[in-house]
Amino acid sequence: MTDLNMQTFEQNKPIGYVVGGGLEANLQVRLTVPPQEVQEGAFVVIDSGTWRFYGLVTDLQLGSTDPRFADEQSELRLPAGLAGLLHGQTLFTNLNVMPVLMIDRGPEPGSLTYEAWRREHPENAAPVTVKTVPSHHAPVRLADAEDIAQIFGEEDNHNIFCVGHTREQGHPVCLNLEKLVQRSSGIFGTTGSGKSFLARMILAGLIHAGHTATLIFDMHNEYGPDSISSDTSQAVPGLKGKFGAQVRLVGLGAKTSFGKLPADFTLEIAQSDITSEDILLLSEELNLNETAATVLSALERDLGDQWFSAFADMRNGAMEQNEDGKLVPAPDSVAFWANQAGVNAKSAEALRSKLDRVMRKDYLVRSTATRGLQEVIDSLENGIHVILSFGEYSNDLDYLLVTNLLTRKIRDRWKKLTEDSYKDKGKQPRPLVVVVEEAHKLLNRGMASQTIFSTIAREMRKYYVTLLIIDQRPSQIYDEVMSQLGTRISGSLGDEDDINAVLSGLPGRAALRGMLAKLQPKEEVLMLGWGVPMPIPIRSRRYDARFWQQVLGNQAQPKTIAEINRSLGFEADDSD
Ligand SMILES: Nc1ncnc2c1ncn2[C@@H]1O[C@H](COP(=O)(O)OP(=O)(O)OP(=O)(O)O)[C@@H](O)[C@H]1O
Ligand SMILES: [Mg+2]
């Protein structure tokens, strides 16, 4: 990166100068160029003394030295030249600028003290949160590409990933992927605002960078196989076609297919993997009552990890005649088990009939041909990305049950890996990102306390597991989870509550609210939160052939397993 101090104003002329304001009330900047050259959300730079300030334009206001000059259409009455002069003196536009960051630039280059200062500060200082204000009349200019790279990083097609461009001058704005995955993050926007497209690009960046593993719960079959855009009817490449064996396409149940692409494997879940906890979180979906928890814990206590299949084998309401000719519960009935286990027979029977819906799922099997859930976890541990497609099992029950089962296993595994790494001072586990679409189904106020997902959002970052949640209705996600999201990227949102939810827990909400409400559908997003140095609205990167050319270069063909093994230093045959 070039020396921050060597940049001159000439590269990018001032657009105005500071005339008032403060840290709380934002800065007032008198505009010296036509107002149409600046937009709300513009990223501006203010140099004052040894400090460089970075801020965002949050509003533009028309002003006049006296209201009469604004009210009268003097251009109709006076000759054009004179009217121009009068307007220049009396009418103006003020920018409202929210200062966000500042950086110590040291003395002017070439001055007596500069050399000594530079020796003491060989590296450019890092930006810090603003704690002071620029002086009166400090010049203000639009940020250029170098300013933006200084704050957001310079694209390296590895860790620093371009997500879009500034709206005025089209300078690239990047996201630090390593930082992104250190906390949970979210992509929001109304339907059709480009969430899935953006998520696909960020996931491509993560897969290409290679330092994380990703597990994508693909509800609508959008991420793995190639598809067709419903809006433009153009082909939309999926991640499998581009990354080959680095990505495993997993279909839930034997019937899930990916069109022409074969599934890498079929996920069937052993019934012995299901715990009472997994059933309890379906309480709302299955309409379970309070007694269900007691019955479930008795089942687990009595029948061990085979409780689910044993319970499925019991007949509901089966009776037989005893020696005295009386009708009593048959030995293989639910009531018979309940009586001898000391639980209420009616409650057990009610639970058994409500669990019928789960027991009929054909992806829940007594014994799996593959290693089931473990196979997914092993892949992730080895840095292979997994896209789990739900195929025709697309109702909420399937989504809740499977995502929770798998994620619970992941939590246990990553916790163990992290604890082992403390003990043996070994390698830390690979960061894992779990991607969930329609996240409010798993993270709404009612569910959040029960599903594993809120635990992940709140505390799993210590164990290197974070979420990437994608949702149209952020207001329906439990606020405690929303406020934990490190990075938030939001497309246009219509609803006030959704806008407030995206901004929850962040400073400068009032200023950002307007920016979020005015984003262009499909083309613009606002990036904000802990994971980005400062909030910024951008034109989102386009997902097209050029994107793939930039990410993968000429490596047009996906890698085969043999190629990956070779690049990792393992000998492998070329048979695949
Ligand atoms: N970055 C982009 N590059 C190219 N086209 C885009 C981009 N973002 C959005 N689009 C266009 O907008 C359409 C909708 O985008 P997308 O499917 O990502 O919406 P969504 O927010 O995921 O909607 P939903 O909530 O309904 O799933 C796409 O089919 C595409 O035509
Ligand atoms: Mg979508």
In short:
With 576 residues, this protein is of the alpha/beta class.
User: How many alpha or pi helices?
Assistant: 25
Main β-sheet description:
12 strands, mixed
Number of domains: 3
Output the CATH class name of the largest domain. Alpha Beta
Low-confidence stretches: 1-10, 572-576
| CATH architecture level-2 label of the largest domain | 3-Layer(aba) Sandwich
Strand pairing plus helix content: what structural class?
alpha/beta
According to CATH, the homologous superfamily of the largest domain is P-loop containing nucleotide triphosphate hydrolases
Shape field: elongated
In whole angstroms, the N-to-C terminal distance is: 44 Å
Rg, nearest Å: 30 Å
What compounds are bound to the protein? adenosine-5'-triphosphate, magnesium ion
Question: Which strand order does the major sheet show?
Answer: 9-8-25-24-23-10-22-21-11-20-14-15
The counted number of beta strands is 25
What oligomeric assembly is this protein in? single chain
The name CATH uses for the topology of the largest domain is Rossmann fold
Mean of pLDDT: 88
Tell me the β content: 15-25%
Give the proportion of residues in helices: 25-40%
Notes on the protein architecture:
This protein is an alpha/beta fold and 576 residues long. It is 35% helix and 23% strand. The strands form 5 sheets. It has a 12-stranded mixed β-sheet with strand order 9-8-25-24-23-10-22-21-11-20-14-15. Strands 1-2-5-4-3-7 form a 6-stranded antiparallel beta barrel. A hairpin with a 6-residue loop joins strand 12 (227-228) and strand 13. The chain is elongated. The two termini are 44 Å apart. Mean pLDDT is 88; it is low at 1-10 and 572-576. Adenosine-5'-triphosphate is lined by residues 189, 191-198, 229-232, 472, 522, 540-543.
